[in-house]
Design goal:
7% of the residues lie in helices and 54% in strands. It has one helix spanning 27-37; strands spanning 16-21, 43-60, 68-88, 95-104, 110-115, 121-132, 137-141, 148-152. The strands form two sheets. Strands 1, 2, 3, 4, 5 and 6 form a six-stranded antiparallel β-sheet that branches. The chain has a two-stranded antiparallel ribbon with strand order 7-8. The protein has one domain (16-152): Hypothetical protein, similar to alpha- acetolactate decarboxylase, domain 2 (60s Ribosomal Protein L30, Chain: A, 2-Layer Sandwich). The longest helix has 11 residues, at 27-37. The radius of gyration is 16 Å and the shape is globular. It is built from one helix and eight strands; from the N terminus they run βαβββββββ. It has 155 residues and is mainly β.
């Protein structure tokens, strides 16, 4: 295996949790709450779909150390094709929900990217399926890029 690749395997996924979010629920906050309730510290968001009344995507503006920029979309939004990783941050150990996906507005325009931690509000419903990974991950700065990335803990 290349020195640039860090991997770890588990024999199978752990517990699987299904949740339906109600209107006016903060998407990432609810996922964090679900994970806490079911003791998931290292997991994967297998599926997340529904509708949002507001979506906020966060983008890196440029090279290492550059500020981040938010794109906010409001209105009747279809939430689809979302997946993500759940793990602790370094060095604090706070639970991080790293969710990517896309939304479509009422005119058919599609937006996609990394969902910001706050501001993504459920409209009618959101269905989520989360699984425990059985692998220890961490969100920490990458020495090569300077970006916060997910990596196998201890590697």
């Amino acid at each position: 295996m290349s020195a640039k690749i860090k991997s770890q395997s588990a024999k199978s996924l752990g517990k699987v949790v299904y949740a339906r979010l109600q209107p006016k629920t903060d998407l990432l906050g609810a996922i964090k709450e679900i994970c806490t309730e079911h003791s998931i510290r290292n997991g994967v968001i297998l599926c997340c779909m529904g509708s949002l009344m507001n979506a906020v995507f966060e983008y890196a503006k440029g090279a290492k150390g550059s500020p981040r920029e938010n794109l906010e979309i409001t209105g009747s939004l279809l939430l689809h094709a979302c997946q993500g990783v759940i793990c602790p941050s370094y060095p604090e150990g706070d639970l991080v929900i790293h969710l990517h996906g896309s939304v479509r507005d009422s005119e058919g325009k599609v937006y996609q990217g990394h969902f910001a931690e706050k501001g993504n509000v459920v409209s009618a419903t959101a269905d989520i399926i989360i699984s425990d990974l059985g692998i220890e991950l961490i969100r920490a700065p990458d020495p090569e890029t300077g970006l916060i990335v997910t990596t196998v803990k201890g590697s």
